[in-house]
Amino acid sequence: MKQRQKRTGITLVLTGEGKGKSSSAFGTAFRAAGWNMQVLVIQFIKGKWKTGEQQAASRFENIEWHALGDGFTWDTKNPEQDRRTSREIWQLCQQKIRTRHYDLVVLDEINYVCQYGWISGQEIAAFIQQEKPPWMHLILTGRGASKEVIDIADTVTEMRLVKHAFEQGIHAEQGIEF
Questions:
Q1: CA angle (61, 178, 105) in 5-degree steps
Q2: Is the Cβ–Cβ distance between 37 and 9 less than 8 Å?
Q3: Under the phi-then-psi rule, with left for phi > 0, alpha for psi from -120 to 50, and beta for the rest, what region is 100?
Q4: 8: three-class secondary structure by DSSP
Q5: Are 59 and 88 in contact (CB under 8 A)?
Q6: DSSP-assigned states of every residue in 75-140
């Protein structure tokens, strides 16, 4: 593994309407773990959902995984609670990044909570610019990435929806969607 002081940390944003944002981030997380990097994944929306990627990550000593949030916020009955939960998760993200323990941090679905106005893009971008160690890699996923986050990112990929199985009446499939 390349020594931290010789590494250029990349901030990567995965956004857009198409499928594959989180899957791409998790693939990168497993790649980094394979190189003995310390990996942190914090999920903003998933809550108590059981996912294959979290089960796979539990087999690695160098991946720390937090599936947090109140579930799918577009079905929320209590937006104020979702806002509070998102702020608490954001505080955890900042605390973990400040430890400087991790080589790669994935903030899964943070763009959604930013899009909902629960955490501002300006606040996220300022934290990244001021506090992310220069050698740390950071991935932010979710639809609706803010302009401020896009502007400070090194790499931005927008997934474009061409066709989705859900449109054909096929619901989320284990091993593909979760």
A1: 45
A2: no
A3: left
A4: coil
A5: no
A6: G-S-HHHHHHHHHHHHHHHHHHHHTT--SEEEEETHHHHHHTTSS-HHHHHHHHHHHS-TT-EEEE
What is the 3 state secondary structure string of 136-161?
CEEEEECCCCCHHHHHHCCEEEEECC
Domains by residue range for the chain, with CATH: 9-162 (3.40.50.300)
Looking at the DSSP bridge assignments, the partners of residue 11 are 138
Over residues 11-49, the pLDDT tens digits come to: 999 999 999 999 999 999 999 999 999 999 999 987 777
Q: Among all chains, which residue has been given the structure tokens 């054909």?
A: 168
At residue 156, φ and ψ (nearest 5 deg) are -130, 125
Quickly tell me which residue has 């996923």 as its tokens: 141
The helix (H) or strand (E) run that includes residue 67 is: strand 63-67
Could you tell me the strand order of the sheet in which 63-67 lies? 63-67, 39-43, 104-108, 137-141, 11-16, 155-159
Amino acid at the residue 150: I
DSSP state of 9: P
How many CA atoms lie less than 13 Å away from 85 in the CB half-sphere?
21
Q: What are the tens digits of pLDDT across the range 127-168?
A: 999 999 999 999 999 999 999 999 999 999 999 999 988 888
